[in-house]
Fold each of these.
Amino acid sequence: MGQPRPARNQSAWWRSAVIYQVYVRSFADGDGDGTGDLAGVRARLPYLAELGVDALWFNPWYLSPLADGGYDVADYRAIDPAFGTLAEAEKLIAEARELGIRTLVDIVPNHVSDQHPWFRAALAGGPERDLFHFRPGRGEHGELPPNDWPSQFAGSAEPVWTRLPDGDWYLHLFTPEQPDLNWAHPAVRQEHEEILRFWFERGVAGVRIDSAALLAKDPDLPDFVEGRDPNPYVDRDELHDIYRSWRAVADAYDGIFVGEVWLPDSERFARYLRPDELHTAFNFSFLSCPWDAGRLRTSIDETLAEHASVGAPATWVLCNHDVTRTVTRYGRTDTGFDFTAKAFGTPTDLALGTRRARAAALLSLALPGSVYVYQGEELGLPEVELPLDSIQDPMHFRSGGTDPGRDGCRVPLPWAADAPYAGFGGDPWLPQPADWPAYAADRQVEDPTSMLSLYRAALRARRTEPGFGDGPLNWLPAPEGVLAFARTDGLLCVVNLADGPVELPVHSELLLGSAPLDADGFLPSDTAVWLRA
Ligand code: GLC
């Protein structure tokens, strides 16, 4: 099962880790019912070890009615029976650890499922109402929602309040099945610290924090006024106190956090990464950046500067379960398009997108910090345009059907080209496109030019070359449209985003390329290489 792994600075593993995101429902189906499960993940651990990842981040695997793919949690201490059992999760954590792979779980603190015992008790009129945001409505008969906050689902004009038969309304920034918790209540804070301990006790190495900048609300719940500071529900100062006490919990277990913090203001973003708060947060500015040398360089520089100000390592993310898959995004030919938004029927050049995604993989894996790889990204899977009647994502329905939602990046993985359902297991909960077998892992393993082979080679090189990962980056002089930088130990990365081929620095040894050099030894357009000077 692969080569023994060279030791790293163990206490700071997370500063340069490659973390693989597992969307359990779509990863691998062990019991043949069409839904991915923990048995499926356990069976594929050798694949993940061979790929060379340092850790796995699991999207929510807890008991859930799956109104939002598991981001509606009914019990944070139980595994959903569709995925397996708690005992199985413990086995999985231990088995992964045996292979040198750590585990991160995904905690959803902003809201719970409407099936959570607290919310059911609140609906029954109990004192649990104080754990949520219940309010009378406005208007003569309370028929209008208590405020005008916009939905957190892109393209949705639906209100964030739902009225109950007794006349009161409750707040939900996402779907009505996801009532927001009242973080000003001490019981909410206490419960979440216990949930963190529960999972750290079970051997997890870290926690991803869902919607991390949304938990705290202005107690008056005032209307939203564009540009008014502070915002009534985003990035409020009270959050930092919450995360400081979370940090104390994590420190007792040597655990780490990665926050889902979507904030345009880099100074505000960095505040979450102060030494006594979160260890890391997802870097969405890089993900949202178009394939343009100048803009990527600016994004990289700003990212490194904002992280340096607090001593935190950056994270590099090209894809996740919420955004359009990388090869499709980079292949979009209508340039005016919002780079992360989803839409029906966008013109896409998949060959171009794949070429760029390969180069982007080598770029992000050469940058200082940790890297996230979303399942299927290593297979070069494109976004799928699903038949309308198979879409399940609430984002689609809450947009009134105008937004395709996020299922297109959640289609179950192809493992074996010749097996039924491309080796996923049973008949998948989202249909796979006809060409899915062409992307199957077993086929790509055999093909040295495949995306999987590129990822395996890159992760192997990253492990054996300590100069990649955390540490300094120095830009090198380069022609217009070319990104060139040096890391330590003479390692160089050059990415050509210009229209034509460019010359490489002389006296360098080629370690890895996203595509072959041309006949003259030049670096072709949309290609990245790793070199040793
Ligand atoms: C985060 C998750 C997303 C989910 C939302 C509500 O943005 O990544 O999938 O729908 O939070 O929990």
Amino acid sequence: MSKRIAVCPGSFDPVTLGHRDIIQRASKLFDKVIVLVSVNAMKNPSFTAVERVKLIEKVTADLDNVVIDINDGLLADYVKKVGACAIIKGLRAVSDFEYEFQMALANKILYDGAETVFLTTSAENMYLSSSVVKQIASFGGDITHFVPECILEDIKARLWKEPEEIK
Ligand code: PNS
């Protein structure tokens, strides 16, 4: 039987505990999960695509059926190329829904061979996003509850500002 492959796309700038939770849960549902770092999604990312891949590698090192890749084209084309049957997205709140619904419909029109599967985020990650992490870190705040411990220092090294640097 052919392997059931899912693609979990995103900016992951940087990967958070919320992302890790969705990736882990997806890895239980599919034979293989490809975490796909999109290089076009943001104009000024804080981490390069290669840096984002390295951070995701660290936080998914224990998940045997998870691999990471970079894509600079359309998601639908990538999904078709790798023969994936699903696109995994995490939904935090109703506010996520309209945009995600729009993307799911567009991707279905572009490539009919895969379904978008929405996983509801865990309650403790409802408020969590990469932007929130970046904002807290840039004000020297505590991000230990938002990002996996193994990448805490990497994120601090890039984003952390000491109180005297904050104007
Ligand atoms: O983490 P994000 O920023 O919400 O992820 C958005 C992402 C990367 C999944 C989305 O922008 C995307 O799929 N970009 C790839 C380009 C593409 O296919 N765009 C059309 C989607 S309808």
